Amino acid sequence: MTIEARFLIERGDFTLDADFIVPAQGISAIFGASGCGKTTLLRAIAGLEQPTRGYLKIAGEVWQDGERFLPPHQRPLGYVFQEASLFPHLSVRGNLEYGYKRLPPDARRVDFDRAVTLLGIGPLLARRPQGLSGGERQRVAIARALLTSPRLLLMDEPLAALDRQSKREILPFLERLHEELSIPVLYVSHAPDEVARLADQLVLLEQGRVRASGPIGEMLTRVDLPLAHGDDAEAIVEAKVAEHDRKFHLTHLEFPGGRFTVARKDLPVGQPVRLRLLARDVSLSLERQEGTSILNIFPAKVETLADENPAQLMVRLDAGGVPILSRITRKSATILALEPGKSVYVQVKTVALLG
Amino acid sequence: MLDEGDLAALWITLRLAGLTLVILLLLGTPLAWWLSRTRRRFKAVVEAVVALPLVLPPTVLGFYLLVALGPNGPVGGLMVTLGGEPLAFTFAGLVIGSVFYSLPFVVQPLQGAFAAIGRRPMEVAATLGASPLDRFFTVAVPLARPGFLTAAVLGFAHTVGEFGVVLMIGGNIPGETQVLSIAIYDHVEALEYGHAHWLAGGLLLLSFLLLLAVYVLNRRFKVA
What is the pLDDT of residue A355? Predict the structure, then answer.
């Protein structure tokens, strides 16, 4: 099951010519700089833009092609705009019920109380939108969209208009959404940290065109893409809590390429976690280092080397099938005689748990 | 105090203003909606035509309406051909004249209110499954409530205050086309200042109260 979209939209001197296919599950981020056409693409998917040419197929159903154009109100999707855009003439409950009531009862797959609980807005139901904080408003907007039982949820930078506190408040709700509901999400963002935390797939948009798309771990480490360069270049590793070390107050996390040891986390054994490894925190050695304070060391194979700047290289490695980035100096690469296929040991100075 | 003729004039005036308002809301709402959404160049022409009664002397508007509605005019002639009466000097003629005369007072506030809503709320409603007509009545109309109130009061009050157009096309037939403003004129002509005072004072008070209601209510809506 996939989401397949092809749109050509011409607006004066801007042209969106986007074409992508992503699995119809999990969160797919549409990522790119401001003005690259992310929002226009999302609006086209919702049917809010009239494209010059358009094709949209969601999980086997064509919503739009040369002949057909399903108008927005007939597309079973939820749309969360950047500003919550709640109806000011309705209460929070009225806002939530607006889409819910327009759905035939047998088509309501998201329970009203469940959505309210999921987003923690029970106490707000009788309130007016004007009295809510930015974070509360956005949570109501998300619940409102969910209550249309969408087959696809579109989110246009839902956190961009919020302050840092409200962002922190909403992110856990988005993660719960991800875990508890099986609604595919297209998530527009220009914030790398949001994408790293939430996305499963990434569609990279550049000046109105799709540069590349694929699984997040793969996309972030593709050295032919700008994402895998710069100070914040990073790899995403999906791991599981393996065991806790009571004596040293540590937690072991397992992934296909080995085992991470981090300061004790209060998580149950078996819990999946997402780790972020910054390329600048990953160093390489030819032999397993002894007598080092670094705990996270595992074997890997060099895949590709790419120029970073005159002094540095970006190395993409394969650790048990998981791609990892390491940024090292050109000098070190020469000393270690790094080349594709070479076996090395990866040393990770710091690991961040996302979420 | 008021005599029978004054009461008849009052009743005709209220009927005229009420009926005109109903027609104007029915015609003006879609017109204002179209004007607030369209990007066609033709829009400017329509806007200018709608605004004409604001600048034209009522006698000019009245003159053309008289010609059109009279037995030899296109509309009046058609009525005669269909076996009816020409519309000039009838209550129906007054309604038609008032609709033109008060058109901008209804269309302009509505157009402004619709434009102020912006596209977003309608788009949100669309993504929540509301059809165009559904979202017009459940989103656009409630959000444009202050505009409707202003339009209704201005449209009504402006028709009540009409003089020149009525005089031109309605004449001054007591009990049929004589409205308050003309009754006042007649009283003054006849040096019946007492009558004139009652009617004029009444109109002044009514107009003031209507406008006050608009401003008070619109302030309340803004906070709500």
Answer: 66
Could you give the CA distance from residue B16 to residue B164 in angstroms, rounded to a whole number? Answer: 15
Residue A146 in domain:
yes
Structurally, how many domains does chain A consist of? 2
Residues A29 and A72 in one domain: yes
The reported pLDDT for the residue numbered A291 is: 84
Q: What does the block give as tokens for A154?
A: 């579109």
Residue A80 resides in a domain: yes
Range of the domain at B32: 4-223
Last residue in a domain, options A194, A220, A246:
A220
Most confident of A178-182, B7-11, B111-115: B111-115
Instruction: Give, rounded to a whole angstrom, the gap between the first and last alpha carbons of chain B.
Output: 43
Are A84 and A140 in contact by the 8 Å Cβ rule? The answer is: yes
- Inter-chain touch B143–A89, beta carbons under 8 Å: yes
- Check whether residue A213 and residue A256 sit in a common domain: no
Complex confidence, ipTM: 0.86
Residue-averaged pLDDT of chain A: 92
Q: Is A318 domain-assigned?
A: yes
> In angstroms, what separates the C-alpha of A59 from chain B's closest C-alpha?
19
Which one of A73, A83, A103 has the shortest CB-CB distance to B131? A73
Please, is B224 exposed, middle or buried when counting C-beta atoms within 10 Å of its C-beta (0-12, 13-18, 19+)? exposed
Q: Is B174 exposed, middle or buried (0-12, 13-18, 19+ CB in 10 A)?
A: middle
A164/A313 same-domain check: no
Domain boundaries, position A273: 234-354
Residue A158 falls inside a structural domain: yes
Q: What CATH code is carried by the domain that includes residue A295?
A: 2.40.50.100
The secondary structure element, H or E, covering residue A315 is strand A312-319
Burial class, B8, CB count within 10 angstroms (exposed 0-12 / middle 13-18 / buried 19+): middle
Domain with residue B51: its CATH number is 1.10.3720.10
What residues in B contact A103, CB-CB < 8 Å? 129
How many structural domains compose chain B?
1
| Nearest Cα residue to A187 out of A208, A165, A203, A173 | A203
Is the same domain home to A262 and A284?
Answer: yes
Q: Which residues of A lie inside 8 Å of B (Cβ-Cβ)?
A: 46-48, 71-75, 77-79, 81, 83, 85, 87-89, 98-99, 102-103, 128, 144-145, 148
Measured CA to CA, the distance from residue A159 to residue A137 in angstroms comes to: 11
List all residues 6 or more positions away from B212 whose beta carbon is below 8 Å from its beta carbon: none
Query: Which of A102, A146, A153 best probes binding to B when mutated, by most B CB atoms within 10 angstroms?
Result: A102
Same domain, A127 and A266: no
Predicted confidence at residue A242, as pLDDT, reads: 94
One-letter amino acid identity for A104?
P
d(CA A138, CA A91): 14
Q: Hey, what's the torsion of the CAs at B134, B139, B142, B147, to 10 degrees?
A: -110
Q: Based on the domain organization, do A162 and A282 belong to the same domain? A: no
From the number of C-beta atoms within 10 Å of its C-beta (0-12, 13-18, 19+), residue B145 rates as middle
Q: In what order do the strands lie in the sheet with A312-319?
A: A282-285, A343-348, A296-309, A312-319, A322-329
